[in-house]
Amino acid sequence: MADGEFHSGEDLGQALDITRAAVWKRLQCLAALDIAIETSRTRGYRLVGGLDLLDRERILSSLSMPASELVGNFLCLAEVQSTNTLLLQSGGHGDVCMAERQTAGRGRRGRQWFSPYGRNLYLTVRWHFHQGVAGLEGLSLAVGVVLAEVLDQLGIAGVELKWPNDLLCAGKKLGGILIEVGGDLTGECVVVIGIGMNVHMSAVLAEGDERINQPWADLHQLGFSGSRNNLSGAILSALLPALQDFSQMGFAAYRERWETRCAFMRRPITLILPAGSCEGILLGVDHQGALRVLTEDGERIFSGGEISLRGGV
Ligand code: BTN
User: Fold this and answer.
1) In a domain, 169, yes or no
2) Do residues 80 and 219 both lie within one domain?
3) Which residues fall within 8 angstroms of residue 66, CB to CB, at 6 or more apart?
4) Are 80 and 102 in contact (CB under 8 A)?
């Protein structure tokens, strides 16, 4: 039914070797996944707008040469609790996990990441770093740069990066990055780089729906009509070599590229800190990706996962 055309209950039953009543029951399951179904007495059933399902082989065959040499096991699942959790628990260097849906998708600072079926990207890469976590401060910023540049190449201009890990478009959240670390934090450590990107969220969620408590945007609203498979292939093609470069050269190559896309650059911001808040003017980031802010007391540097940034004071 992914083609979005009408299919009769009888045809579907025959294709699946089940009764028409069983077809109907399965369609109710799809409705529970927020997939809109139109029913016609004469023509049968159709998925409104069709569904662009992930296709592991298509993604793999679209990878650039450097990426195809770096990719490890590639899991493409219908459902998972969280692609990050799965690859934190087990896997090898370069493994990738994508899923159509996450039942316990996670965002930064313990937040939930709303992950409806078949519409967005939920993608995690597992990468082993030898130098411990100290050098990883700028990793989520570097990944943000890679994603924004890929979107640029696909014709989605104007994506901004909000420190430390948000992709924004016109001030609305388009995606986020969640980096989590396991293993030996001072040496050989396992890092999972999780990316959530809204591709066609608007097919399942109306603006103002309380399942997401901040303004959001999706690629579809920005004119993207390509397939999630091409998008995933383009992201992995750029991301895997970038992770390799980052392991060797750190954040330096990304600093300027990040700052040119920095949301609220040289504008007033408020930082929400574990204890209280701090206001100032955003100056950019330092060589490791820590935030530079001009406050009443002069320039201050902020780093760490428990800080969140808002535009304005
Ligand atoms: C944020 O902005 O708070 C980060 C969101 C990261 C969401 C992605 S979706 C794929 C991966 N799996 C998860 O459970 N979270 C990340």
Assistant:
1) yes
2) yes
3) 237, 240, 241, 244
4) yes
Count structural domains, the chain: 3
Look at residue 3 and tell me if it is in a domain: no
Which residues, in sequence order, are CB contacts of 248 under 8 Å at separation 6+? none
pTM of the model: 0.94
Which one of 108, 126, 228, 255 is the catalytic residue?
Answer: 108
Active-site residue flag, 25: no
| Sign of CA pseudo-dihedral 279, 284, 289, 290 | negative
For 152, the domain range is 56-259
Whether 45 is in the pocket of ligand 1, judged by its Cβ within 6 Å, is: no
> 99-120, pLDDT tens digit by residue?
999 999 999 988 999 999 999 9
Residues 69 and 88 in one domain: yes
State the distance from the centre of ligand 1 to the C-alpha of 5, rounded, in angstroms.
33
The predicted structure's pLDDT at residue 209: 82
Same-domain status, 186 and 297: no
Q: Which of 46, 119, 162, 173 is flagged as catalytic?
A: 173
Q: Would you say residue 33 lies in a domain?
A: yes
